[in-house]
UniProtKB/TrEMBL annotation:
Name of the molecule in the record: Protein kinase domain-containing protein
UniProt organism field: Gymnopus androsaceus JB14
Chain residue ranges for the region called Disordered: 1-47, 213-276
InterPro entries: Kinase-like_dom_sf (IPR011009), Pkinase_fungal (IPR040976), Prot_kinase_dom (IPR000719)
GO molecular function: ATP binding; protein kinase activity
Length: 792
């Protein structure tokens, strides 16, 4: 059900936290360290990097899920039912309602019978599959939670970068019934469904288990009796119909899966799926393969694409479930920001869930899916998204036409949350605050990672915020930032407060104009009885524990909202000055410099560069000799320092890595844009957004060690940056060779270890060398914000 407050029963199957648990303090650090960072696989600026492409290929997009799929975990169906669905497997016995259970068994029998007809023609099994899934709706327990499974196959779900078409979609019944009525009058109405409405996705295949790598023979199969003519006629008779489930009426469907641009089919259906290490190597070796969607590997990526779009383009969710069925074989797959877990049976995962042998368990799992409320579906506690159950929300979906997508200006489904309300804790004594959500400004595009979403908000004026007169947020432009970071990571709020306090203590308030302004923050841990809690117990030390973390912040302008070339230069110089100060005094290393994290604050007609997003920042103390020691690569891949792309790099992170990232921000900005917000025709560094670590390391290393390097052609608007970029590349070139010689001397024992040499590429690439370059633009001095430096 929709929630006004973030509460849940401690015994809920997929609940987040119990009612009696404090929600504002970060839990103790766990032994499981962060395995990867958000955007190391899924760049936050990835969508904007590809915005010049009017249309994106599904296969091309799904390639970038390889690294996530390489980390997939496997459990048997019983464990999946217990750990993921919270189902008490020993009690998975038929329902006490005999008539109801007989109908459920009969629906399964009808489906299995349909799988023996017209092999290869998926439309044959759609009607009985929809009937089967909806037959378990009586288990929902309440009208509010009732769900409807319907055939979505003929039309793409709206609100994503690519056009994906799950065979069967699932929505709350109130929305589904309205859609069914409108579909009867206008078949195009099925196009009103957008990712924010989908609760689950189901993909059906009719290949006798081959697509799940569990082929079997059916003695009752009439494959030899089916002619190609009949198969063609079956496809021609398909209609994009969605109907209310009844005992007698069936739904026809289409097996069409591709987007408007189809990739070639190059592999046979017998191609086996690579194992996890192979998948990772493929990602690192930057091999963008043309793969056949009619293979097990293609199906796995296809399902992950559905999960990505539900997590990235829909309602704020911690996890989703996708069901894959190939005739009598079935696989449930769970996706969250830390792991992908699939149900398998038998040794080595070669035999999947056989519906003929585990009929009762399968039907009980369907009942459990019907019984889940919004929070158990992964929707974050406290979110009141009435659109999930409001038939009028379909109008919003209809407005998300492809021609109306404002590419490069936020995610495609940027209106999905508009009009929703979110209630969150603001104090440890239980005081709450509610905001009304507006446009989504940015959303992480991927599965694993922080999954950060930034949304415009305004106070809903509940919980007594006006008791003292005017609301303290009155007139402010605010955003809420919600993410799912590792529970042991220091919060952005702690980092920013540390910097703010030191700025005031040192009477250096100038730096406050270049830091984000946070008004409140909250942390909501996952309960041990939640699916995340159960996964921690199931995979001790291997499952990355996460939390829900949010903050209310001042809304800032994106870098591309500036209008003059010199404004860009000043903002970049501002961010450099802020970075040096927070590293020198509060001992904070940012570790995620990217275009999206360089923002602009406008005050009284003046612009100030803001170093934003300290989610990945590290606090350290040089006085005690303790330096950043995290060996985990952090940052946004296109902007990461070159050596952080190598497996051999074991840290520690250094401030020169962030300065190198700043160089890449400027390089990509001037080469990929002709002026603010206008993409160039040629994108020379596009591969940095799409390829793996080996490719990026080689490309960046070549750039940094090329003595005759010249910046690619750029527009007149950004012409002034040629001098900056050429001089910075020269400093890096000197540093690469000077540092290489120093390392050889260290190995030979002819030199002593010196941390400053490691930090600065032996003095060639440091704050001092960068300041000399950045304090002047087109032969005119820029503003030095620190009064102590500007007076010298």
């Amino acid at each position: 059900m929709d929630r006004d407050e973030p509460t849940a029963s401690a015994s809920s199957a997929l609940g987040h936290h119990s009612q009696n648990r404090k929600t504002t303090t970060t839990p103790p650090r766990r032994s499981t360290e962060p395995q990867s960072t958000p955007n190391s696989h899924h760049a936050g600026s990835y969508a904007s990097a590809l915005a010049a492409k009017e249309q994106r290929l599904v296969d091309e997009e799904n390639h970038y899920l390889l690294a996530d799929l390489g980390q997939m975990k496997t459990v048997d169906p019983e464990r999946f039912a217990s750990v993921i669905l919270g189902l008490s497997v020993p009690n998975a016995t038929p329902s006490d309602k005999k008539d109801y259970w007989n109908k459920l068994e009969s629906a399964l029998g009808d489906y299995l019978k349909a799988t023996t007809l017209n092999p290869g023609v998926e439309a044959t099994i759609y009607p009985s599959a929809v009937e089967l899934f909806n037959a378990a709706s009586a288990a929902s327990g309440s009208e509010e939670n009732k769900k409807l499974f319907f055939k979505q196959d003929t039309t793409p779900v709206r609100g994503a970068w690519v056009m994906e078409k799950p065979d069967i979609g699932v929505v709350f019944q109130r929305v589904g019934m309205k859609l069914a009525e409108r579909t009867k009058e206008n078949k195009d109405e099925i196009g009103s469904v957008f990712w924010g409405l989908l609760l689950y996705a189901v993909e059906l295949k009719h290949q006798k288990g081959k697509m799940l790598e569990a082929p079997y023979e059916d003695s009752t199969s009439s494959q030899s009796q089916q002619s190609k003519t009949n198969q063609k006629r079956a496809r021609e008779d398909e209609t994009p119909t969605m109907k209310q489930p009844t005992a007698s009426k069936k739904v026809a469907g289409s097996s069409s899966r591709a987007s408007k641009k189809k990739s070639p089919e190059t592999a046979s259906s017998s191609v086996s799926e690579p194992n996890s290490s192979t998948l990772y190597k493929m990602m690192q070796d930057r091999k963008l393969m043309e793969y056949d969607r009619k293979t097990p590997e293609g199906l796995k990526r296809q399902a992950a694409g559905y999960a990505r779009d539900m997590l990235s383009n829909g309602i704020l969710r911690s996890h989703v479930i996708v069901i894959l069925i190939d005739d009598a074989m079935c696989r449930f797959v769970y996706y969250d920001h830390s792991a992908i877990v699939q149900s398998e049976a038998g040794l080595f995962g070669l035999c999947v869930f056989d519906l003929r042998e585990k009929r009762t368990l399968f039907l009980k799992m369907l009942e459990q899916l019907h019984a889940f409320d919004a929070q158990q579906l992964g929707i974050i506690p406290g979110l009141d998204a009435k659109l999930l159950k409001d038939p009028n929300s379909l109008k919003k979906g209809a407005k998300m036409g492809w021609s109306q997508l404002d590419l490069g200006e936020g995610p495609p489904a940027k209106l999905a949350l508009k009009g929703s309300f979110y209630t969150f804790p603001v104090t440890s004594d239980g005081r709450k605050r509610t905001v009304e959500l507006g446009e989504i400004l940015s959303s992480a595009y991927g599965i694993r990672g922080r999954g950060t979403t930034v949304v415009r908000v305004k106070c809903a004026h509940k919980h007594g915020c006006r008791s003292g007169g005017q609301c303290d947020w009155e007139g402010l432009k605010l955003v809420i930032k919600i993410s799912f970071p590792s529970e042991g990571r220091t919060s952005e709020t702690e980092i920013v407060e540390r910097c703010t306090k030191m700025a005031r203590d040192r009477r250096e308030e100038w730096v406050l104009k270049h830091l984000p302004r946070l008004f409140c923050s909250f942390t909501i841990p996952f309960d041990r009885n939640s699916v995340q809690g159960r996964l921690m117990a199931e995979f001790p030390g291997a499952y990355e524990a996460r939390i829900i973390r949010g903050s209310i912040q001042e809304e800032l302008k994106p870098l591309m909202k500036l209008e003059a070339s010199r404004q860009f230069a000043q903002v970049i110089y501002d961010v450099f000055q802020c970075h040096e100060w927070v590293y020198t005094y509060p001992k904070v290393l940012h570790r995620d410099i990217s275009q999206l994290n360089i923002m602009v604050r406008e005050e009284n007609g003046k612009f100030y560069g803001v170093l934003n997003d300290f989610d990945l920042a590290t606090v350290f103390e040089t006085i005690s000799g303790h330096r950043p020691t995290s060996e985990h690569r952090t940052g946004t891949r296109p902007y990461m320092a070159h050596e952080q792309h190598t497996i051999s790099w074991q840290g520690p992170p250094r401030y020169r890595h962030d300065l190198e990232s700043l160089f890449y921000v400027m390089l990509i900005m001037v080469c990929h844009y002709t002026k603010p917000g206008v993409k160039a025709e040629e994108l020379p560094y596009l591969e940095w957004f799409t390829e793996g670590d080996n490719s990026l390391f080689n490309s960046k290393r070549t750039l940094l060690t090329e003595a005759t390097w010249e910046i690619p052609p750029i527009s007149d608007f950004f012409a002034g940056y040629k001098v900056w970029l050429s001089r910075i590349q020269g400093s890096l070139w000197d540093g690469m060779f000077g540092y290489g010689q120093y390392l050889r001397k260290l190995r030979a024992g002819t030199s002593i270890n010196n941390e400053q040499k490691h930090d600065t590429f032996c003095g060639h690439f440091s704050y001092d060398t960068m300041r000399v370059i950045l304090n002047t633009f087109e032969n005119e001095a820029l503003l030095t914000r620190d009064p102590k430096r500007s007076s010298n």
